[in-house]
Design brief:
This protein is of the alpha+beta class and 116 residues long. Helices cover 14% and strands 15% of the residues. It has 3 helices and 4 strands. A hairpin with a 2-residue loop joins β2 and β3. The protein is extended. It starts with 7 loop residues before the first helix and ends in an 11-residue tail after the last helix.
């Protein structure tokens, strides 16, 4: 979906295909365990059980060992003169993305949480 917004880098990513970019993580889901927590000093701990990670064609985890390489590329929009922000119209968003009973449609939706 990010590619559909005009983010060129995302139009080239996510498929294992000639001419595309895909970072790969190879693991056995039965042996992967998280170690990171919300505690200070533990929030960046790597998971255990991830045997291989390949980023931009470079191995960054080799047989479970994290290597000191940083081959990743930033994914961001180019700097533009005008912003892309478009305010959300709650009536249109709800009509497009939800199924609501008719009675709810008739309420006033200035507040996205509905009437209180």
């Amino acid at each position: 979906h990010l590619g559909d917004t005009g983010l060129v880098a995302m139009q080239e990513r996510g498929r294992v295909q000639v001419g595309k970019v895909a970072d790969l993580t190879l693991f056995n889901p039965k042996t992967v365990t998280p170690k990171a927590t919300y505690k200070l000093g533990e929030n960046g701990l790597s998971s255990e059980g991830i045997q291989w990670v390949i980023v931009n064609g470079t191995i960054v985890v080799n047989d479970g060992n994290v290597l000191d390489v940083r081959p990743g590329q930033s994914i961001r929009f180019d700097v533009e003169q005008n912003p892309r922000y478009v305010p959300v119209n709650w009536h249109e968003w709800l009509d497009e993305h939800t199924i609501m009973p008719p009675a709810f449609h008739d309420t006033h939706l200035d507040d996205p949480r509905g009437s209180h």
